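Aim 2 progress. For Multidrug resistance-associated protein lethal(2)03659, the working sequence is reproduced below.
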Amino acid sequence: MNYEKKTHKPLNPVKSTNFFSKLFFTYTAKLFLKGYNKELIESDIYQVLPSYESKQLGQKLEKEWTKQARNNRNSLPHLLFKCFGKEYFLLVLTLIIPLTLTAVKPRLTKRFILYFASDRTTFPKSEACAYGALLVLVEFATVLYVNNFDRRIITFSLKIRAGLTSLIYRRVLDLKSVSIGRSVNLITKDVSEFEEFLLMVTLMLRDVLNILVLCYVLYTEAGWLFVILIFIIVTAVTISGILAFFVKKLQVRTLAKTDMRLQTTKEVLGGISLIKYYQWGDYYQHKIQEIRKKEVSLLTKVFILLSTSIIISSSVIDFSWYIIVVGLIFSGVKSNVGTLFVILNSLNALRLPLQHVLPRAVLEFATIIAAITRIENFLRATSRNIDEPSTNIPLLSVKTPHVEFEYSSGITAITGPVGGGKTYFLTILAKEDMKSFAYASQEPWLFPATIKQNILFGSGFDQARYLEVLRVCALLDEVQDSTVVADKGANLSKGQQARINLARAVYKDCDVYLIDDCLCHLDVMVADFVYEECLRKFLKDKITLVVTQNVQHIGNSDRLVTIENGTIKSDDKQLVKKKFTTKENTTTETKLVENLEADDNVYQEVKASGKVKLEAYQKYLEACDGISKIFGIFFLVVLTQVLKTSVIKLQANWIRTEQLIFKNSTTTKALENRQRMIYVLPILIIAATVLFIVNTTLYWFLAKKASISIHKLLLSKIVNSSIEFFNSHFAGNILNRFSEDMLYLDEFVPRTFYDMLRNIAATTGIIILAATVNVYFLIACLAFGAIIITLRMIYIRTGRALKRLEFSTRSPLVGHINATLEGLATIRISKQQNLQREEFDKRQNLYTSASYMYMTCEKAFHFTIDSCGVCFSTFAIILFLVLDEDISSDNVGLGLLQIFLLTITQQFLCRSWTRLENYMTTVERILQYTKQKQETKNGVVVTNWPSEGEIRYEHVYFGYNTTNVLNDLNFVVKSKTKFAIVGRTAAGKTSLTSLLLRPYGFKGNIFIDNIDIATLSLDLLRSNVFIISQESTLFSGSLRDNIDPTKKFSDDEIWQALKMVHLAGLFQSLEDKIGQDTNLSAGQQRLVCLCRAIVRKSKVVILDEVTANVDSDTESVIHSVISSSFGDSTVIVITHKFRYILGFDNVLVLDNGTVAQVGDPRRLLEDRNGIFYKLYEKNHKQ
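Predicted structure tokens for this construct:
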């Protein structure tokens, strides 16, 4: 959410290139040259093509979806057909081209082979040369069409991905309830399924048409036996369909687990400090890992079913040839070498669609149905209704249908008890027809960008107003507006966060300002300054509604509204209820803030360069239960290929035998050979099939272990990383590792790795067979392989860099969604949805362009190696013609068969090898996050510590980066006393107390019961020091899970704690669900957090601003709990409220990181020049 300067991007050359350059991919040459000479970086990414722009596509889909909704006909397939159907239909029409080529190729092959079986007088060599030339021409035309068609369909699917992603984000801004896990999974997983689905279903359509043509060819060659082939194919497809039914069910369950895992991971990242302090890390790691195991187990079953479908289809091809040949024999039909090789070649042409495309397409059908259902459910979800309450209070008692007020300028104070409905009252006002208002939320919302960008929030820059806003919000001399804000403002104090949040609202020139208790996080002096300078003076001519519990601020307001139990109650300052009128907001909104000091992409990641390190492969293989297991799998793959090669060789020998019988039917030896092969061939096919099933199943179980192990390693390293890691890495970037990077690890990496193993074995087997035809083929194969390896070396630098860029440009999308959901209330009430859409579209355009560049470069590479394959075929055909007197027709047939297979297999090997390195960048990215600095947990374990709880600071210094926040602190907190820490906002109070839990390193010594905490085991320290931080962090789950997830305490103890904070009546069971989307008010959430401290009964308890945003009654409850429940504990309380300050044993006044005063509060009051006296006087007036 970083509103950056518009950087100039180079134009995509495809936009201005000519037809032939597009046809032969020559427009990619400059990019390959640049990528070969240097590592590509983000500035090298082209401008997105106009037809792929996120905004345009999102608006197009949103408009059509809204139109369908009005007619109650919401359907995602119908939506996509209406918006993209015409373009797709025109693409499909071009499939007539490969049909013609498929029909011609077997005929040309047969005629070419028959030349070598003829006596040369009836079949001149010139005619054979013509057939050979036509065969080469057909091969090249096929290569040209297939690669261009694949490029078009892949980039077309990219357009759908961009449009759907944009549409989903638009719905995120509008829906009543949104989960970050679900949103991220929809975009990274479900929407991405459309890319694979469109490619596979189009290939399936193309291959179905090719199958029909090849079936016709087989019919002309095999006659009635063709019916057997049709029966076998239909059976195979039916089995694949049945498997797809089970796959669909598994996919739905898998995606549900993925949603749950991502949601929990997001919550852990958001509350990582508390999880560390409360020692809940192991619990949440176990919880997430259990979800992960179930997720991967389901996914493994999916791929085993897919592999089963592939194995069945592969066996169908081999058995089909066997059944046809046996059928011809028993029917008494004599077949020549040309006929048998045409049948074999046609069946091998069916191998790719039946073995790979159709099973994958069937799987994609099952997967896409699940994805469509999930996306449709999301898009159809209930939009946010302005009349629905967002808390668990009754509907506000407002007599008029709408809340309509006419105010004179001034301040209206809104007060009332915790959970009364004050925040909800503001949201009702915000939803009235007010075209000019600003809103500041109770909990500060800041997004990853500079402080200046957070304040401007897309509004036009007015320097005079901007500087004045900084002044009246007490920010002018305290912060640098070029500072980049971390997630949730973690690098700022709570008071600074609150003032920046307020400044964002005040900067907008509006009629009405809705301020939701922002000042509660400030010390009394700063709060009074902001109230006077900002609310009373700067906004004096405006209508300002302020939620507050501050008695002085209430007294100085112009009118008052009291809200209790959802009912508006007015005091003697009566609220006049009339019609509300507004004027238009004249502030000009722009996406861009000019003259930014820090305009870099805040989500920019440290990107690896050069080759993927060997360590990535090593770690992955080790995660697969050891490298030796992978070698064992490879041995089984090789053994399977040996059997398959034996099948092919046996088929060639059988054809030679049939040729001898065709010429002389009385050949006894040939008849014996035929009889032997009738029995041997099916045994080899069955053996190869069984072995294929075994090695595939074993491999996927190893891949399952790798996915679980690497995720466990990443999760453990992240959770145990030092706090500095989370301050310097945005949650969006981290979450990206757990979403799409993990998706590649689960699916693409293992699938590609296994394909590479199979292709290595297959290529070796084919080369051996080709060498048995003629030794020259061995030399040609090695030369062909050398050329392909050279081409790969040229391509891989560019392809690898583009894949890294594609991954790195995806992180801002996840980060933007994360930041949006955290500040959804502010965005909606401030009516800044359009601004967020534009920013999201800008980030997606960059991601789309990087994807487009990667995909087109990959297809250019494929076209090049396919063209080399045509050259290799040309060499083979020429060699056959040169050696026509020394080579038999069966060897020519076997040679052509192996050459066609070799060009395909070597291309697949090169592609899988190349893709593997590209996909291994995800493993590299994951491992990068496993090398972060870990918390040092080692230390001394002291029994029965602490027994008293006395705390002593000696010469303590602490700072972030090079700036000290705390300087030479020296003080003592006596055991079992109540110790208050007060001071101005950003004085360092939170930093001082947090050091007791050792989140950071510091200079000096801190002792608890005379033991230096730096020497203690971190687990021991944190198990005896408990903190309630400024944020009321709740996690999705039950009430018990939020108070005591590790189940150390009984139900009675938890209910007793709930009764003490007056919350027992809100819940029926400890299993009641609460969480980040809870209906509890901010004050009630704070009381739930207080229950954690009550049940823990730690010797040292730290309460950081626990009374900041609660009413006086709730404040009394909290102080009563402090007195009654923590009598045996040393309690440190950070507070800005002085109502109960004299009840503390000692008070420390912190000023700019140093101890200004410390001692008994009554004694400190005697110093009328001291800071404590001034703070007390200010509070006392209230």
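The longest helix spans residues 668-719. This observation will guide construct design in the next reporting period.
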